[in-house]
Design goal:
Elements (H helix, E strand, L loop, with lengths): L1 H19 L9 H10 L12 H14 L3 H28 L2 H12 L2 H8 L4 H21 L2 H14 L10 H13 L6 H20 L13 H8 L2 H20 L3 H13 L4 H19 L10 H21 L1 H9 L4 H12 L3 H9 L6 H5 L9 H6 L10 H13 L5 H5 L2
Helix pairs in contact: 1-4, 2-4, 2-21, 3-4, 4-5, 4-7, 5-15, 7-8, 7-15, 8-10, 9-14, 12-14, 13-15, 14-15, 15-16
Length: 422
């Protein structure tokens, strides 16, 4: 019966996400990815601009199923979101040995704001999360079984993940500790694992070089504001970043932050334990990077850290269950209240002057609800936004540029009114 329960659980999550998914192509990079599908061409570009793994798998998916570009990108995103949760489920079950822990941890992550939001739009981050969840799963298999095969697989997956998103280099310090653990503690030969990871990391450069792309863009975009701006904020700037990062963490995991923080402090006290050090570094480095990264949508870069954070949450809840079973039960059941938490947050913030001003400033995109609700049903579309002339033409406005590219592809197939509704 447990297999049936699992199928029903993940089937429910897929339908749940599909129901709340966007109705019109949303703002941000979404239309750019739709245009990739519309162009329907495989790429050999392994720089940060090529989205090599995402683009090629998306085009393959679209071609196999014969879908239009918008439903193709929608379902591609939904499928990899649910696959991420499937892998996370089995990683949690492997580590904590209890099915209920796996269900609870998966549901906590599934309803977290950032992951839920990214599932409802068109982006690369849930696709990338699948590879990181797979990396974590094979890492846990190695730590549990001490079998070099799983260290090799975790290194292979982390290497492949670099073809999905360059931010995954922030997991290298944790991976290096993992390799050290294998050699010092378990007497496992880590050289094949190190070799396969380096081969994939170097492969990005090699493919870019032989295909004529700028190799300086393999691990960097060339936008100095994103890099230097991240390091030149001063004390007040960094303090603000930390407050914002903590705010994001609470908004994603609200009451579940407490047991996780308790476990993190316990692990810090016993950081000499190699496994504790691995989990801490694997969480703190990507979390720290996302905290200071100087981009407007930095909240999405926390996802890699959040995948590790869920394991802290469940470990903390298990501790609570042992000492305070009634409190554990209440906290666990509260996961079903997460959507209510988002609604209450909106209602409270919409009553204060700052929230009302923000709602007016962003009204054309959907107002405050666009930023506080993870679901995208009944959303304002980027195409209707620009086709209705709500913003003057700007040569530097990438969303406007993407609209014109989409129009160029679709004018022969659809009327302007039909495009406006997409």
């Amino acid at each position: 019966m447990k297999h049936l329960y699992r199928v029903l659980f993940f089937g429910f999550l897929f339908v749940f996400y599909w129901f709340f998914s966007f109705e019109k192509v949303p703002f941000g990079d979404a239309l750019g990815f739709v245009n990739i599908a519309e162009l329907n061409e495989f790429t050999d570009n392994t720089t940060v601009f090529g989205k090599f793994l995402y683009t090629n798998l998306l085009i393959g998916f679209k071609t196999i199923f014969g879908l239009d570009s918008i439903p193709a990108t929608r379902f591609f995103n939904l499928i990899f979101s649910v696959l991420t949760l499937v892998v996370l489920f089995f990683g949690l079950k492997l580590k904590f040995r209890k099915e209920i822990c796996a269900y609870l941890g998966t549901l906590i992550f599934a309803l977290s704001f950032t992951f839920w939001k990214q599932t409802e739009i068109i982006e690369v981050y849930t696709f990338n999360s699948f590879w990181i969840a797979l990396y974590i799963y094979f890492t846990i298999r190695f730590l549990e079984d001490k079998n070099s095969r799983f260290l090799f697989l975790s290194s292979l997956v982390l290497g492949i993940s670099l073809f999905a998103h360059v931010q995954n280099i922030m997991l290298i310090p944790g991976w290096a500790i993992l390799c050290f653990i294998s050699f010092r503690n378990y007497k496992v030969n880590a050289f094949p694992s190190i070799f396969i990871f380096i081969a994939f990391a170097f492969g990005l450069y090699f493919m870019a070089y032989i295909n004529g792309y700028n190799t300086s863009h393999v691990f960097g975009s060339g936008n100095s504001d994103w890099v230097t701006g991240s390091l030149e904020k001063g004390f007040s700037g960094f303090a603000k970043d930390i407050v914002v990062a903590i705010g994001y963490l609470i908004y994603n995991f609200w009451i579940f932050v407490i047991p996780a923080i308790i476990i993190i402090f316990k692990k810090i006290k016993s950081f000499r334990d190699s496994q504790n050090l691995f989990y801490l570094v694997s969480f703190l480095v990507p979390f720290g990077f996302a905290t200071i990264y100087n981009v407007s949508d930095s909240y999405v870069f926390f996802l890699n850290a959040y995948l590790f954070f869920v394991f802290f949450i469940i470990e903390g809840l298990i501790d609570i269950k042992i000492s305070q079973p009634k409190i554990y039960k209440s906290i666990s059941i509260s996961v079903f209240c997460v959507p209510i938490f988002y609604i209450l947050s909106y209602l409270i913030i919409s009553k204060i002057p700052q929230g009302q001003n923000f709602d007016k400033e962003k009204s054309e995109k959907g107002g405050l609800s666009y930023y506080l609700f993870p679901w995208m049903r009944n959303n304002v579309g980027v195409l209707e936004f620009y086709l209705d002339g709500k913003k003057p033409f700007d040569n530097k406005d990438f969303m406007n540029i993407n609209c014109h590219i989409f129009l160029k592809h679709r004018k022969g197939k659809n009327s302007l009114e039909e495009i406006r509704k997409m």
